[in-house]
Amino acid sequence: MANRQHRYSVRLDWTGNLGTGTSSYRGYSRDHALTAGTKPAIPGTSDPAFRGDPARWNPEELLVAALSSCHQLWYLHLCSTAGIVVIAYSDDAEGVMEEEADGAGQFSAAVLRPRVTLAPGSDRDRAVALHHEAAEKCFIARSVNFPVRHEPVVEVAAG
Known about the structure:
Layout: E1 11-14, E2 32-35, E3 42-44, H1 59-82, E4 86-91, E5 94-99, E6 105-112, E7 114-118, H2 124-137, E8 148-150, E9 153-156
Parallel strand pairs: 6-8, 7-9
Antiparallel strand pairs: 1-2, 2-3, 4-7, 5-6
Helix pairs in contact: 1-2
Protein backbone atom coordinates (compact mmCIF):
# COMPACT_ATOMS: atom_id res chain seq x y z
CA MET A 1 0.00 0.00 0.00
CA ALA A 2 1.33 3.42 -0.94
CA ASN A 3 1.89 6.09 1.68
CA ARG A 4 -1.05 8.46 2.08
CA GLN A 5 -1.26 11.94 3.53
CA HIS A 6 -4.19 13.15 5.62
CA ARG A 7 -4.93 16.76 6.57
CA TYR A 8 -6.84 17.99 9.60
CA SER A 9 -8.24 21.49 9.91
CA VAL A 10 -9.55 23.05 13.10
CA ARG A 11 -10.83 26.57 13.65
CA LEU A 12 -10.22 28.40 16.92
CA ASP A 13 -12.30 31.46 17.80
CA TRP A 14 -11.30 33.42 20.89
CA THR A 15 -14.43 34.23 22.89
CA GLY A 16 -12.71 35.84 25.85
CA ASN A 17 -12.67 39.55 24.99
CA LEU A 18 -14.34 41.05 28.07
CA GLY A 19 -14.52 44.50 26.48
CA THR A 20 -10.95 45.76 26.54
CA GLY A 21 -9.13 42.96 24.73
CA THR A 22 -5.76 42.06 26.21
CA SER A 23 -5.22 45.49 27.78
CA SER A 24 -4.22 43.76 31.04
CA TYR A 25 -3.22 40.24 32.05
CA ARG A 26 -6.30 39.78 34.23
CA GLY A 27 -8.59 41.75 31.93
CA TYR A 28 -9.42 39.00 29.44
CA SER A 29 -10.71 35.45 29.49
CA ARG A 30 -8.74 32.55 28.06
CA ASP A 31 -11.96 31.03 26.67
CA HIS A 32 -12.20 29.96 23.06
CA ALA A 33 -14.20 27.59 20.89
CA LEU A 34 -12.71 24.87 18.70
CA THR A 35 -14.67 23.75 15.66
CA ALA A 36 -14.13 21.53 12.65
CA GLY A 37 -16.72 21.53 9.91
CA THR A 38 -20.22 20.95 11.26
CA LYS A 39 -19.11 19.15 14.44
CA PRO A 40 -20.22 20.52 17.82
CA ALA A 41 -17.85 23.13 19.24
CA ILE A 42 -15.40 22.14 21.96
CA PRO A 43 -15.29 24.81 24.68
CA GLY A 44 -11.63 25.56 25.32
CA THR A 45 -9.58 27.60 27.76
CA SER A 46 -6.21 27.44 29.49
CA ASP A 47 -5.34 25.22 32.44
CA PRO A 48 -6.89 26.69 35.63
CA ALA A 49 -3.31 27.22 36.86
CA PHE A 50 -3.05 29.81 34.06
CA ARG A 51 -6.40 31.56 34.70
CA GLY A 52 -8.53 29.09 32.74
CA ASP A 53 -12.08 27.95 33.42
CA PRO A 54 -12.04 24.47 35.03
CA ALA A 55 -15.37 23.66 33.32
CA ARG A 56 -13.77 23.90 29.85
CA TRP A 57 -11.19 21.74 28.08
CA ASN A 58 -7.57 22.91 28.05
CA PRO A 59 -4.93 22.03 25.43
CA GLU A 60 -3.05 19.77 27.83
CA GLU A 61 -6.18 17.68 28.49
CA LEU A 62 -6.91 17.53 24.78
CA LEU A 63 -3.42 16.17 24.09
CA VAL A 64 -3.85 13.42 26.70
CA ALA A 65 -7.34 12.73 25.32
CA ALA A 66 -5.91 12.42 21.79
CA LEU A 67 -3.35 9.86 23.00
CA SER A 68 -6.02 7.87 24.82
CA SER A 69 -8.50 7.98 21.95
CA CYS A 70 -5.94 7.03 19.31
CA HIS A 71 -4.76 4.04 21.35
CA GLN A 72 -8.34 2.90 21.96
CA LEU A 73 -9.26 3.11 18.29
CA TRP A 74 -6.20 1.13 17.20
CA TYR A 75 -6.72 -1.42 19.96
CA LEU A 76 -10.36 -2.04 19.05
CA HIS A 77 -9.39 -2.39 15.38
CA LEU A 78 -6.65 -4.90 16.17
CA CYS A 79 -8.91 -6.92 18.48
CA SER A 80 -11.63 -6.99 15.85
CA THR A 81 -9.29 -8.28 13.14
CA ALA A 82 -7.82 -10.84 15.57
CA GLY A 83 -11.27 -12.19 16.44
CA ILE A 84 -11.14 -10.90 20.02
CA VAL A 85 -14.47 -9.48 21.19
CA VAL A 86 -14.15 -6.40 23.41
CA ILE A 87 -17.38 -5.63 25.27
CA ALA A 88 -16.16 -2.70 27.43
CA TYR A 89 -13.24 -0.26 27.34
CA SER A 90 -12.30 2.71 29.51
CA ASP A 91 -9.06 4.54 30.15
CA ASP A 92 -7.82 6.73 33.00
CA ALA A 93 -5.05 8.49 31.09
CA GLU A 94 -2.66 11.00 32.60
CA GLY A 95 -0.02 13.34 31.23
CA VAL A 96 2.80 15.06 33.09
CA MET A 97 3.87 18.55 32.07
CA GLU A 98 6.99 20.16 33.50
CA GLU A 99 6.85 23.95 33.80
CA GLU A 100 10.12 25.86 33.80
CA ALA A 101 10.94 28.99 35.80
CA ASP A 102 10.38 31.23 32.77
CA GLY A 103 6.87 29.82 32.21
CA ALA A 104 7.79 27.60 29.26
CA GLY A 105 7.15 23.92 29.59
CA GLN A 106 6.69 20.58 27.93
CA PHE A 107 5.17 17.19 28.54
CA SER A 108 7.66 14.73 30.00
CA ALA A 109 5.48 11.60 30.04
CA ALA A 110 2.03 10.15 29.66
CA VAL A 111 0.52 6.93 30.94
CA LEU A 112 -2.56 5.20 29.57
CA ARG A 113 -4.44 2.86 31.88
CA PRO A 114 -6.95 1.07 29.68
CA ARG A 115 -9.41 -1.30 31.39
CA VAL A 116 -10.76 -3.82 28.92
CA THR A 117 -13.47 -6.44 29.33
CA LEU A 118 -13.57 -9.27 26.81
CA ALA A 119 -16.43 -11.56 25.89
CA PRO A 120 -16.36 -14.99 27.59
CA GLY A 121 -13.94 -17.39 25.95
CA SER A 122 -11.68 -14.64 24.54
CA ASP A 123 -7.89 -15.01 24.45
CA ARG A 124 -6.78 -12.72 27.28
CA ASP A 125 -3.03 -13.11 26.63
CA ARG A 126 -3.43 -12.15 22.97
CA ALA A 127 -5.65 -9.21 23.99
CA VAL A 128 -2.96 -7.95 26.37
CA ALA A 129 -0.30 -8.30 23.65
CA LEU A 130 -2.38 -6.24 21.24
CA HIS A 131 -1.91 -3.18 23.48
CA HIS A 132 1.77 -3.21 22.49
CA GLU A 133 0.89 -3.34 18.80
CA ALA A 134 -1.68 -0.55 19.21
CA ALA A 135 0.98 1.56 20.94
CA GLU A 136 3.33 1.06 17.98
CA LYS A 137 0.67 2.11 15.47
CA CYS A 138 -1.00 5.06 17.23
CA PHE A 139 -0.49 8.14 15.06
CA ILE A 140 -0.55 10.54 17.99
CA ALA A 141 1.84 8.57 20.23
CA ARG A 142 4.26 8.24 17.30
CA SER A 143 4.19 12.02 16.91
CA VAL A 144 5.07 13.14 20.43
CA ASN A 145 8.60 13.48 21.81
CA PHE A 146 7.94 12.03 25.26
CA PRO A 147 7.33 8.46 26.41
CA VAL A 148 3.78 7.09 26.51
CA ARG A 149 3.51 4.13 28.89
CA HIS A 150 0.68 1.62 28.91
CA GLU A 151 -0.66 -0.12 32.01
CA PRO A 152 -3.55 -2.20 30.65
CA VAL A 153 -5.89 -4.31 32.74
CA VAL A 154 -7.69 -6.95 30.67
CA GLU A 155 -10.43 -9.16 32.10
CA VAL A 156 -12.58 -11.84 30.52
CA ALA A 157 -16.26 -11.61 31.45
CA ALA A 158 -17.73 -14.59 33.25
CA GLY A 159 -19.59 -16.90 30.92
